[in-house]
Amino acid sequence: MRDVAVVAFAQTHHTDHDTGVSEPELILPAIDEVREKTGLRSFGFTCSGSCDYLAGAPFSFVSALDALGAWPPISESHVEMDGAWALYEAWVRLQHGDVDTALVYGFGKSSLGNLRTIMTLQLDPYYLEPLGLDQLSMAGLQASALGAPQEELDEIVRRSRADGRANPYALDLPLEGGEPPITDGAAAVVLAAGDRAGELCANPAYIRGIAHRIEPHYLGMRDLSRSVSAADAARAAGVGKGRVEVAELHAQFAHEEIILRQALELPAETVINPSGGPLAANPVMATGLIRIGEAASHILDGRAARTVGHAAGGPCLQHNLVTVLEA
Amino acid sequence: MPSEPLVADHVLEFPGGYTRTTGPVIGRFLTELRDGRIVGVRTAAGRVLVPPLEYDPDSGDAVTGEYVEVGPAGTVTAWTWVETPLEQHPLDRPFAWALIRLDGADTALVHAVDAGNAKALEAGTRVRPVWSTNRRGHITDISYFAPEVTKIVSPVKAAYKITASRSLTHFLEGVKRGVFVGCRCANCHKVYVPYRLSCPECGIAITDEVELPDTGTITTFAINNLPDPRAPEVPFVSAYILLDGADVPMIALVGGVPAHQVRQGMRVRAEWVPEAERTLSMSNIRWFTPTGEPDAEL
């Protein structure tokens, strides 16, 4: 297995409304920032994560390539998933050994449509989508299955929102509530393999474990009070092999944090979502990648030696990706 | 001066909708649904999946060809209340989404429950499907689920014609004139109001009639928060009022004072409606209102 590290991370100053920038215009500042941090203008591989349904336009990721300057032609791929899975694909690509650097980005403008009901379109078209089950309804069912005390949930929201206010990239939101904010934003990460990692940055955040697992889609086939797939991914990534100083979890709702914390077997001393997490900024399709980027930042800045980034996709935490980063 | 941003509406829609093949397993479920039956499919391991899937999510093995009728009743295992339904939701009034384990199934079905209000639901609530009148082989052939019948409402209404007794008529005639008519027992000397024909303590007829003043003292009271056609406002106070010179209190409304200021020992006076509006009824007294005198010792 080749050593692969996060060597740069950048994100936009996320907004709760459409500022009128096009997708390439949204992405460009984050791409420019990681180019500047690494000094790289071209990459061995490029992979992005986005969802056409957010903008209601087909192949929006293709036009987004205008932010890269894909000429002469570049080696590029895309996942219709959170950018965290684009990072996974790039990590796999770097394992081939013929390229040493990869640019990964994720972006989304969820302000354009009605995100709550656009999320209905991810459901199976026979049993769930025709019922019109929306994002908040799905979350409500999972919260009911977990049955956590309201005070515990409120405290997670309060902590996340307070941390978010201190994060210049996140939104300034009330300390109460509980719904993830509608957010426009983007993020970019540069991965480097082998010796290149040390050449491109002083403190590479080495990916010592990365795995994703998925479970059945239909909500009634699962025990929604726990996340078996997150637990399996965490075991495969080796989360428990050492102390986790910081964990950035892709928990869009407070009850998801409780479920994930349990699945990843994180002890009380692990700091959860010091960035504020998705409750403070939720640029859909970049939110998971930002979790990995934020977790990596603690190592890039020399503030931590071992962190975890988590990303989720699908209804009620159906699909989970866990990354263990070490100095 | 920056120009206004250019904004346009944009709708993503495939006219007529996508045509999707169901495959044999989902197709069987939807066909049975059109016939008003709910079926699950048995896995090789013996579990019954509802709604049926082509592969066992536990093992990835193909399911067996055995379909099992389940329900129609089931048990709610988790639920979430929707106070403001969205246009795409199955009900246009507040309802719950629920995971429902139908009788005979090993998994839960996601559907809507029309429970009236959130307090009517809990994990364990028994529900049954309410079928669409126009079934076409679609998950919405079940319009929604409804809780099983556990209680009924029984309205009771009986009509009577009541003739006031001689003593009550005499008392109300007094009230119409603006006086309270009472009586004194010749044996125990107690003064009763309203006027009555016998002493409840001595069991003898009373003949000695007395007129009482319209002032008195509150002995006890209740603050009522439910509207009553006889009371002018909510909350209102009903009180026992011991008219001056009487030995038993009379029940009446207290008004003209905030409810929380009403107290035992408070001195009150009847507030009469204008003479022209009076009838043979207690409504001639709007209420008793404080006189402002110092409280009386009870």
Label this structure with key terms:
heterodimer, A: 327 residues, alpha/beta, Peroxisomal Thiolase, Chain A, domain 1, 2 domains, ten-stranded mixed beta sheet, 34% helix, 20% strand, globular, B: 298 residues, mainly beta, five-stranded antiparallel beta sheet, 2 helices, 31% strand, elongated
Identify low-pLDDT runs of chain B. Answer: none
Low-confidence stretches of chain A: none
Distance between the termini of chain B: 80 Å
What is the overall shape of chain B? Answer: elongated
**Tally of domains of chain B:** 2
Helix content of chain B: under 10%
Main beta sheet of chain B: 5 strands, antiparallel
Residues in β-strands, percent of chain B: 25-35%
- Please describe the biggest sheet of chain A, giving its number of strands, its sense, and whether it closes into a barrel: 10 strands, mixed
Computed over alpha carbons, the radius of gyration of chain A is 18 Å
Mean pLDDT value of chain B: 92
Biggest chain pair contact, residues each?
A: A-B, 31 and 39 residues
SSE order of chain B, as H and E?
Answer: HEEEEEEEEHEEEEEEEE
- Going across the biggest sheet of chain A, name each strand in turn: 3-2-4-5-1-6-10-9-7-8
User: How confident overall, as mean pLDDT of chain A?
Assistant: 96
Structural class determined from secondary elements of chain B = mainly beta
Name the assembly state: heterodimer
Helix content of chain A: 25-40%
CATH topology grouping of the largest domain in chain A:
Peroxisomal Thiolase, Chain A, domain 1
- CATH homologous superfamily identity of the largest domain in chain A: Thiolase/Chalcone synthase
Could you tell me the number of beta strands of chain B? Answer: 16
